[in-house]
Amino acid sequence: MALWFLRGLRRGVVTTGYPARSDDSAARLPTPPAFRPAALDRSTADRLVAVCPSLALRREADVLVFDVGACTACGRCQDAVPGAAAPSGEFELAATSRAHLVKRIPLLREAGT
Amino acid sequence: MTDGDPALSSQQDQPGVPPPASGSEPGPELAAGRQLSERIARQFGRSLHIRTLDTGSCAACEQEIRLLAAPHYDLNRLGFFFTPAPRHADLLMVTGPMVRAFDVAARKTYEAMPGPKIVVATGACALGGVYQPDAFVHGSVAEILPVDVWIPGCPPSPLALLQGLLVAVDRLAEKVGGLSFAADETQEAAQ
Fold it and tell me: What single DSSP character describes residue A108?
């Protein structure tokens, strides 16, 4: 206890300075994926939609609709189509409107049917 | 207790008494609404008391919410405090997919809070991601309570929750609205 107290005094505080200073510790946790439009056509998008367990993905013609609010950052889309998705590293995701969390990602047109 | 009963019975007569989700509905009331939200932000700019409400969550969100009080995050330094009573709370943090059996309790909790009040939907379940509406769950907190701020994540990390709380009291700007979640091609080429 006394040792901890002295060490604490020497090292300073353990508390994050988050709102004032950036803290990337949360970015190393699972984060929702960012998709590469260049690697996505209709068939790969359909594979992503089929593999998503929380219904965060759906395809509307040549657009992949990604609901960040529904995403659980499970990483299955990254495994299903390698190169199409990678962790975004974004954790500051709070939104004042539900619609702000729905992202529309354009697909490659010429590769589609 | 007796004064609470008429309000409750009138609520049960008309289901869905609280207005639906505060989405991006345009209208002539927008300017007045913005003024009101600025006033509320001023009022909430000081210390703020949080009541958590578990509507069928798996408790992962609760675990992260508990971590907010840990020394590393220490939300008390920002003026946030947890309170066990909704009557003392300014902000309601709702987790879980809103189990139908919890309707009355959720409405009573919301009604018990003094105004002005903020509702924060926390976690993918509360945002309508994991569970679809069925006989047991509404699937989204917005079906029952008017949600002001949405915090995604399964579960959201304590820093994400902290950012959500600061967005809720307007001390931090929302960031996710400007993100595309499409990887930047120029960045890819540079690598």
Answer: P
